[in-house]
Amino acid sequence: MAGEAVQAHLGKSIVVRGEVRGSEDLIIEGRVEGSVMLNNGRLTIGPSARVQADLAARDVLVLGAVIGNISASGRVELRAGSEVIGDIRSTRLAVEDNAVFRGKVELAVSGAVQL
Fold first, then answer.
1. Which of the 8 DSSP states describes residue 44?
2. How many whole angstroms separate alpha carbon 5 and alpha carbon 79?
3. pLDDT at 59 exceeding the cut of 70
4. Whole-number Å distance between alpha carbons of 73 and 89
5. What value, to the nearest 5°, has the Cα angle with vertex 86 and ends 81 and 92?
């Protein structure tokens, strides 16, 4: 249908090893090992997801566990109960209470982050 946002979904039982690339929004509920690169998409790491990969997207929302670096041209959000071990490069960062983060943060001026 015209005007609807395209969104892909990797379910809880899905395991991906390698590189995931695309330009649409993506929700990951399963396991991913390798890298995830979305040109202008929003990446959501669901609460049951276990991701061991470097992530690059416009916006990244983490509800589950990520081991790897995150690069976003927009916003990175770490919600309560999430865990990130790795460095974050973004223009904006939001961390809720009870989110676990171990790594470095580099906040850049909007438009300066290269994916």
1. E
2. 23
3. yes
4. 8
5. 75
Pairing of strands 75-78, 59-62: parallel
pLDDT category at 115 given cuts 50, 70, 90 is low
Over the stretch 9-32, which tens digit does the pLDDT of each residue have? 999 999 999 999 999 999 999 999
What mean pLDDT is reported for the chain? 91
Of 2-6, 62-66, 74-78, 100-104, minimum mean pLDDT range: 2-6
- Please state the three-class secondary structure of 83-104 as a single string: EEECCEEECEEEECCCCEEECC
Q: Phi, psi at residue 71, to the nearest 5°?
A: -125, 125
Q: What residues does each domain of the chain span?
A: 7-107
Cα gap 34→66, rounded to integer Å: 11
What is the DSSP track for 66-81?
EES-EEESSEEEE-TT
- Cα separation of 73 and 18, whole Å? 23
* Six-digit token string for 37: 């690169």
